[in-house]
Amino acid sequence: MIGSSNHQSHSDPRRADRERRYKAPVLNSQVPSPGEDMTPDYTNILGMIFSMCGLMMRLKWCAWVALYCSCISFANSKVNDDTKQILSSFMLSISAVVMSYLQNPQPMTPPWSSVFG
């Protein structure tokens, strides 16, 4: 009887009628769960806003902040996140930096340097 594991012992507390198979919860990508980290999404949106400000207003510091936000968004993204959107935000921020320096190759002087200088 030691080698036979096919029969159920009388001291086994498990009940076969109460067993249920595990089913993974269905995730809705549109509605975030309460414990989900929204940092990549927020930094992605901030990166796009700063990229547009850098491109349209020719503000170099906006372009650099956009690149910083895009790097944070990329670093914090999950495998199942939309990679096209993150990559497009990253490329938009790089183009904002490049275009702002092509239009004006002088070193950047941030607007707050006159306050502390």
UniProtKB/TrEMBL annotation:
Region (Disordered): 1-35
Cellular component GO terms held in the UniProt record: endoplasmic reticulum membrane
Keywords: Membrane, Transmembrane, Transmembrane helix
UniProt subcellular location: Membrane
Biased composition regions of type Basic and acidic residues, renumbered to the chain: 9-22
Pfam families linked to this entry: ASTER
UniProt xrefs under InterPro entries: ASTER (IPR005351)
Gene Ontology biological-process annotations: protein insertion into ER membrane
Domain of life: Eukaryota
Molecular functions per Gene Ontology: protein folding chaperone
Keyword Membrane listed: yes
Similarity remark: Belongs to the Asterix family.
Protein name: Protein Asterix
